[in-house]
Write a structure and sequence with these properties.
Residues 28-152, 165-255 form the GCVT N-terminal domain. This protein has helices at 11-19, 24-28, 49-58, 78-82, 133-151, 196-209, 219-228, 255-260, 266-275; strands at 32-36, 39-44, 61-62, 69-74, 97-104, 110-120, 123-128, 158-161, 169-172, 175-181, 190-193, 215-216, 279-286, 296-298, 304-314, 319-327, 336-341, 344-351. 24% of the residues lie in helices and 30% in strands.
Length: 364
C-alpha cells in the first residue's frame, strides 16, 4: 500500500482561501476575523472577551471548531498501530468512549495532543490541532508505512480524514451528526460533527432555541476559558521538547502503558514517572500587569527557575492567572516567586489548577 498523503483542503476551506473573506454567519454576529492556522476565524463577536467568558460559564457558548483536523484509523491493526504513537491505553477504551492523549517523539516530547475515540475494535477517531495538521499527518503516515512493512501488507490499516466518524450517529436538526462529550473550557460540553452544508443551519437553530442565552464565542474567550480551566495550548504550554509528565499529563498515560511501554519515547517518560521530572507545569496567581508567555520566573534567592507559557486576566476570578514551567522543588502550591513583566518583578505564588473549578458531568 502507498503511504497516505496529507489530504487536500476541503472545498469549503479552498473557497475561503480563494475569496479571502469570512463566511456570512460570523459577520452577521459582529465577528472580528483573524487568520488562524490557514483559516479565517473570529477572535470575538459583538460581546467583549470578558462578557463572552462569563456568559459561557453561566449560560453556554457555541464555538466553531471546523478548523480542527479529524482522522479515522481503520483496520484490524489500527489500535496496536496507534498505541505505538500515543500514550493512551486505547485498547482498554469501551466502544463509544474516548480520552485525551499525546503523540510523542523518540525523546518523549509532545508532537501534539489529541482526543481519541474508540468507535470499535477496528475503528478509532482522532481530532488533532489545526496548526499541527501537516506535521501530524506526516508523522502518522511515516510510521504507518513502517508498521505495514514490519507487519506485512495484510495489516490493512488505513487513514482517512473527516470531521465525522460512523459511530453513535444522531439526527440533529435534520442532519446525521456525530456527537461527542468533550470541551476545552472546563464546562461540560459537546462537540457536534456535522456535514459542512448543514453547519450554518444547525448553528442558527442552536442559537434560536436557546433564546439568546447561548452565544457565538470566539478565540479570545476560548483562550481565557481554557486558561481558567488549566488546560494546555499546544505551541505555548506543550512543545516537542516537553514530555507529558513535565506537562502534568501523567494521568493520560494508561496503567498498562506504564507497565509495558511500547510507545515512542517510553524509556524517557517511564523514567520520569519513576524518578520525577526536572521541570513541572504549575499555575500562578500574580500581582501587577498580567504575565504573558516567556515572562521569566525568579525564585526567592533571585535565580531564574522557570518561564511563563500562558497568562492573562481571569474574567471569572477578577485576578491575574498564569501557568508555566519551574524547576522541581519550586512547584509546590504556596511557593512564592517573582514574575518579570517588561523587566519589572511582581509578586507571584504557585497555586493548584484548575483556577476555576470544572463542572464536568460524572456519572454516578
Amino acid at each position: 500500500m502507498a503511504a497516505p498523503e496529507a489530504p487536500a483542503p476541503s472545498r469549503h476551506r479552498r473557497r475561503r482561501a480563494q475569496e479571502d473573506r469570512p463566511p456570512r454567519l460570523p459577520l452577521e454576529h459582529g465577528g472580528k476575523m483573524v487568520p488562524f492556522a490557514g483559516w479565517s476565524m473570529p477572535i470575538q463577536y459583538k460581546d467583549s472577551i470578558m462578557d463572552s467568558t462569563l456568559n459561557c460559564r453561566s449560560a453556554g457558548s457555541l464555538f466553531d471548531v471546523s478548523h480542527m483536523c479529524g482522522l479515522s484509523l481503520r483496520g484490524k491493526h489500527c489500535i496496536p498501530f496507534l498505541e505505538k504513537l500515543v500514550v493512551a491505553d486505547v485498547a482498554a477504551l469501551k466502544p463509544g468512549t474516548g480520552t485525551l492523549t499525546v503523540f510523542t517523539n523518540e525523546r518523549g516530547g509532545a508532537i501534539d495532543d489529541s482526543v481519541v475515540t474508540k468507535v470499535g475494535d477496528e475503528h478509532v477517531y482522532l481530532v488533532v490541532n489545526a496548526g499541527c495538521r501537516d506535521k501530524d499527518l506526516d508523522h502518522i503516515g511515516k510510521h504507518m508505512e513502517e508498521f505495514k512493512r514490519r507487519e506485512g501488507t495484510s495489516a490493512g490499516t488505513s487513514m482517512t480524514r473527516g470531521r465525522c466518524s460512523r459511530s453513535r450517529m444522531l439526527d440533529i436538526n435534520g442532519s446525521h451528526c456525530f456527537l461527542t462529550r468533550t470541551g476545552y473550557t472546563g464546562e461540560d460540553g459537546f462537540e457536534i460533527s456535522v456535514p459542512s452544508e448543514h453547519a450554518v443551519d444547525l448553528a442558527k437553530a442552536i442559537l434560536e432555541k436557546s433564546e439568546g442565552k447561548v452565544r457565538l464565542t470566539g478565540l479570545g474567550a476560548r483562550d481565557s476559558l481554557r486558561l481558567e480551566a488549566g488546560l494546555c495550548l499546544y505551541g505555548n504550554d506543550m512543545e516537542q521538547h516537553v514530555t507529558p509528565v513535565e506537562a502534568g499529563l501523567s494521568w493520560a498515560i494508561g496503567k498498562r502503558r506504564r507497565a509495558e511501554g511500547g510507545f515512542l519515547g517510553a524509556e524517557v517518560i517511564l523514567k520520569q514517572l519513576q524518578e520525577g521530572p526536572a521541570v513541572r507545569r504549575v499555575g500562578f496567581f500574580s500581582s501587577g500587569p498580567p504575565a504573558r508567555s516567556h515572562s521569566e520566573i525568579v525564585g526567592a534567592s533571585g535565580e531564574k527557575i522557570g518561564e511563563v507559557t500562558s497568562g492573562g486576566f481571569s474574567p471569572c476570578l477578577k485576578k491575574n492567572i498564569a501557568m508555566g514551567y519551574v524547576k522541581s522543588g519550586s512547584h509546590k502550591p504556596g511557593t512564592e516567586v517573582k514574575i518579570l513583566v517588561r523587566g519589572k518583578p511582581y509578586d507571584g505564588v504557585v497555586t493548584k489548577m484548575p483556577f476555576v473549578p470544572t463542572k464536568y458531568y460524572k456519572p454516578t
